[in-house]
């Protein structure tokens, strides 16, 4: 099986039919992310249940990588605790930046492993990590104004 083709089809599928692509009306947190280099813009909504992410959604526009990454991010962190989501972001960031600590075979990455090829295209790292930066800002309670500084 050609794994790179499989991963690419996951990204194309999430770009075409993004999951959790809606405003979350009963959200208690919200943050915006912008990547001016590519023109990607998105908003992430969170509904927390104590320390756990009860629901998460996003709306935005941008390239296929940014939209697919946001879609897969929502499906990955839903139900996770704040700490688990942060740990996933660290592993995902290692993967897309090509860090020596990256472990593409880590089974806990699931669909996130689809983005391992991004490390060969440094200009795409911001596209792939935009939704995660917005998620982290929302978890911290930062609003749009502070995330737009990035
Ligand atoms: Zn982009």
pLDDT < 50 runs, ≥5 residues: 145-150
> How many structural domains does the protein architecture include?
1
**Outline:** globular
Number of helices: 5
The CATH topology name reads Sufe protein. Chain: A
Strand order of the biggest β-sheet: 1-2-3
**Helix and strand string, N-terminal first?**
HEEEHHHH
Main β-sheet: number of strands, strand sense, barrel status? 3 strands, antiparallel
Query: What's the overall average pLDDT, rounded?
Result: 90
CATH architecture annotation name: Alpha-Beta Complex
What is the gyration radius calculated from CA atoms?
Answer: 14 Å
What is the helix fraction of residues, given as a range? 40-55%
Bound molecules: zinc ion
- Estimate what percentage of residues fall within beta strands: 15-25%
Structure summary, number of beta strands: 3
Query: What is the CA-CA span between the terminal residues?
Result: 39 Å
Keywords, separated by commas or semicolons:
disordered C terminus, three-stranded antiparallel beta sheet, 3 strands, binds zinc ion, 18% strand, 150 residues, alpha+beta, Sufe protein. Chain: A
Protein model, in words:
There is one protein chain. This protein has 150 residues and is of the alpha+beta class. The chain has a single domain (3-149), classed as Sufe protein. Chain: A, CATH 3.90.1010. It has five helices and three strands, in the order αβββαααα. Strands 1-2-3 form a three-stranded antiparallel sheet. Helix 3 (82-97) runs antiparallel to helix 4 (125-140). The longest helix is centred in the middle third of the chain and has 16 residues, at 82-97. The protein starts with a helix and ends with a helix. Bound molecules: zinc ion (ZN). Residues 35, 38, 40, 62-63, 65-66, 127 line the site of zinc ion.
């Amino acid at each position: 099986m050609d794994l790179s083709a499989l991963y690419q089809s996951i990204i194309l599928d999430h770009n075409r039919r993004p999951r959790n692509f809606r405003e979350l009306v009963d959200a208690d947190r919200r943050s915006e992310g912008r990547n001016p280099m590519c023109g990607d813009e998105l908003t992430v909504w969170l509904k927390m249940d104590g320390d756990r992410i009860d629901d998460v959604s996003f709306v935005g526009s941008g390239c296929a990588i940014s939209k697919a990454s946001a879609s897969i991010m929502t499906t990955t962190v839903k139900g996770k605790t704040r700490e688990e989501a942060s740990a996933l972001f660290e592993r995902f960031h290692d993967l897309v930046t090509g860090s020596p600590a990256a472990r593409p075979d880590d089974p806990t990455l699931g669909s996130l492993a689809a983005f391992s090829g991004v490390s060969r295209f440094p200009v795409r790292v911001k596209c792939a990590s935009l939704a995660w930066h917005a998620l982290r800002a929302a978890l911290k309670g930062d609003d749009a104004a502070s995330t737009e500084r990035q």
